[in-house]
Model the fold of this input.
Amino acid sequence: MTYILEAKGLNTYYGRSHILFDVGLSVAPGQTVCLMGRNGAGKTTTMRSIMGLSPSRSGQVLFKGRDLTRMPAYKRARLGLGFVPEDRRILAPFTVRENLSLGRIPGRTGGWNMEHVLEEFPLLVHLLDRLGGSLSGGEQQMLTIARALMGNPEVLLLDEPTEGLAPVVVSVLKELVMNLKESRTTILLSEQNIRFAEAVSDQVVVIDKGHVVFAGSIQQFREEKAIHKKYLAV
Ligand code: ATP
Done:
């Protein structure tokens, strides 16, 4: 199998704290791979290491076979890795339209432009002139995903997109991710909402205290009740 994105043996530290221990994962083109694990397990750090925002001290990140390990984050974004961070990072004093325009990445073109993004996110059409800071949590989440798509990423990294959202907004998000999957967008997701993760994922990687403790298909994950209990139960 050829993978579009691979992480191998990542060891990442914050100062002296060793956070990721030989973390590895592989994402095939068009698939959705979900990172699961409790709060503090290392999901965000894995995404940040893949993006180059918290570079790993050892290990490798490969994108379409190319070694990105020593590359700064902005170059990884230019190559096609799009990151939607957990804290959303909406630019509060800018309008929704401006926030979307800021998602464009020089040199990256493709199917996603303002028109297509607004078709996929009709909710944003009526909000275009509103300031980013005035949006609800759900609206902000839609905006950050839409903004990342404006950069025409080849792989979209979505860090806990459902966090803090009302169930009705989670349903909208689920439909959106399903649409992205249908258009063969490759997604690396991090999620604690098991139902959401099961609905949209092809593969699951469970992390516990910075170690990968399970990696397999969604079917294998469903059958591994012991994994649920041991590493995911609250
Ligand atoms: P959550 O679901 O709570 O976001 P997570 O699985 O994404 O959790 P990480 O955010 O990757 O976990 O955190 C992994 C570990 O690294 C935690 O123990 C956390 O306290 C620690 N950590 C995260 N950021 C920093 C930082 N900037 N400095 C020091 N330690 C950090």
